[in-house]
Structure formats: structure tokens, C-alpha cells
Amino acid sequence: MTIKDVCEKFGITADTLRYYEKVGAIPKVGRSQGGIREYDDEALSWVQNAVCLRKAGVSVEAIAEYVRLFNMGDETFEARLDLLSKEREELGKQLAELTEAVDLLDWKISRYRKAVETGVLTWDKEEGE
Amino acid sequence: MTIKDVCEKFGITADTLRYYEKVGAIPKVGRSQGGIREYDDEALSWVQNAVCLRKAGVSVEAIAEYVRLFNMGDETFEARLDLLSKEREELGKQLAELTEAVDLLDWKISRYRKAVETGVLTWDKEEGE
DNA sequence: GTACTATATGGAGTTGGCTCCAAGTCAAGT
DNA sequence: ACTTGACTTGGAGCCAACTCCATATAGTAC
To answer: Could you tell me the distance in Å between the CA of residue A11 and the C1' of nucleotide D10?
Structure first.
């Protein structure tokens, strides 16, 4: 699979993909004789991992650290577990903050729907809503 | 309430608070004769709004746009509703991506717990887990 | 009033994560 | 073989959101 295919598959640019490889967020990708990247299934699953975690806000640095530990072999199971656990904890916090913001927005939106309807904006909670 | 109190209350720096005011993510805060910021309840709720939305990843620019519309008065109910709805939609996507990443991490963590226990890392789903 | 700490301002600097560019190489079509 | 378009590299540039700094003024304790 070429870099272009991978880009399309994951909705990211070739530059981003090369950048991830450069900083180690994915392991080195195999090349053709000509030096062109060829993504196999394993490479793809690394890309998927990186893209998924990045979308959730995990830093490129943390992802790269995981890859580094992975490449060091079986001695690093615990270190990897620690790393993943810490990141998981962060995402838990992030999830709580996101939920809070969603609630805030939903509340405001409900008030503005009413305001658009009635011409008056109120922040009072009313009965029967 | 002084800027320091507000910082402590929300866990952000004074610089950030001044920055939010400068770019309009919160309305101008009242000052003492000497020019020192004095946050009243209304100012506090604007700060809370900004902090909550920022933590969820809403851009400073979007928050400032909301404040701008707010200051324009009742003519902008619909514009504000549109803005909030769009941001709400973004947060919905973000929530889905975050949840996906959490699931990924939880799965990996479960595998690594087993690996630390047994010395062998496997990615096979097993019966009875 | 003096000393000391907090705050104000404008503007420069930093960081993370891309994003773009130049110059060159590779691959596919004709 | 030649053209055209995709891919390569190293490195520069960009943007959002802070973060830091220098200098000056305000408030507080004694």
C-alpha cells in the first residue's frame, strides 16, 4: 500500500504520516528498492493506533514513547502498561470535561431555542421541561 | 475578587485570564480606580464558561465570537444558537473519538496486565474474559 | 514614608503539531 | 526515451494558545 492509499484510508495527509514516522509515533515503514514507502498490515495497524490516539488528544510524544518501548522488547511490558494506564487516566479526565461542556452547551442551546421562539432569553429553569 | 483568586478558583494562570480578556473570550472585566481587575459574579460566570469550553477543546476564537454576539444584543439569538449548535456537534464527534481511544487503551491495558502476569503478550481474544 | 508584593501593559518568545517548500528521484503511460 | 505525476528528503514556516519578560504602577504591612 502506498502512502497515498494510507492517507485516504485514514483521512490524513502524507506529510503527517511522514512526520509521525520521523518522530517515531509509528515504527519505520518498509521501502521499495527505490526508497518508496510500502505499508503492510502491521504498518497499517500502527498508523491506526497513532491516528486513533491523536484524535483523542494523546500527544505524539507519548505515542512515540510507546513505540520506543515496544521496540525494546519483552522487558518493557510493565513500562508500557504504566504508560497506557497514565494515558487512559488522562482520557478519563478529558471525557469528564468534554461531558461537562456538552451539558453546558445543551443547556444553552435549549435556552436559545426558546429565545428564538419567544424573543426573550431567560436562564431560569422552568417547570415541565 | 482579584485575579489571583480567580486563578486559584479555576486552576489557570493570571496570564491566561488576561489573555482571554484581551482576545475577547471573556468580556472586559471591571477595574478599581487603580486599574486593577475586580471580578464580580457575572465576570466569574464568563470565566467559568470560557474555561469549561476550552477544556473540551472549543477554540478561543469560537468562544470570543459568542461573547461578541452576546454583546451585540437580542438581534443575535439565532446567530448564537447556530454557533453553539455547531460547537456542540464538534464536541459530539470529539466524544465519539475519545470513546474509541478509551476502548482501544482499555483493550491494550487488559492485554498488558496479562502479559505482565504471564510474561507473554498476546492480542488474541480469549474465551471467558 | 518605606519596603515588599501583587498587578498592569505591550510585546516578544515558546510549544506542539503539523504544513509547506525546494530539489531531486521514481514509476507509469505512450 | 520522454513526459507527467507521485514520492523522497531535510529543513523552514505556520498557527493556536499560551507563557514569559521588562517596566511601571497599585495596594498592604509596618
So the answer is: 25
Residue A39 reports pLDDT greater than 60? yes
Confidence class for position B127, pLDDT limits 50, 70, 90:
low
DSSP characters for A57-105? T--HHHHHHHHHHHHH-GGGHHHHHHHHHHHHHHHHHHHHHHHHHHHHH
Question: Which residues make Cβ contacts (< 8 Å) with residue B63, sequence separation at least 6?
Answer: B25, B49, B50, B53, B54
Q: Give the whole-angstrom CA distance, residue B28 versus residue B35.
A: 12
Which of A64, A42, A43 has its CA nearest to residue A53? A64
CB within 7 A of nucleic chain C: A 12-13, 15-16, 19, 32-36, 54, 59-61; B 2-4, 14-15, 18, 22, 31, 35-37
Cα distance between residue B24 and residue B64, in whole Å: 5
